[in-house]
Amino acid sequence: MNEPDLLLADEPSASLDPERGEAVMNLLVKQATDRGTATLIVTHLPDQIAASRSLIIDRGRVTEPAQADA
Length: 70
Description:
Layout: E1 6-10, H1 18-35, E2 38-42, E3 54-58, E4 61-66
Parallel strand pairs: 1-2
Antiparallel strand pairs: 3-4
């Protein structure tokens, strides 16, 4: 639990105001970067993507790979 190989986060910033949502996303990115933890984050807010690799899925199909700055 303290050092997972994979961290899954489903809508971690849902129902948060933009400032707190950004703080949560930054914390997850820091965790992944500092500890080298593979992290899968599901979000409906593409402007919150902060990853080295990402996918956009529409109706169960990958529509495009998206790149964002880490």
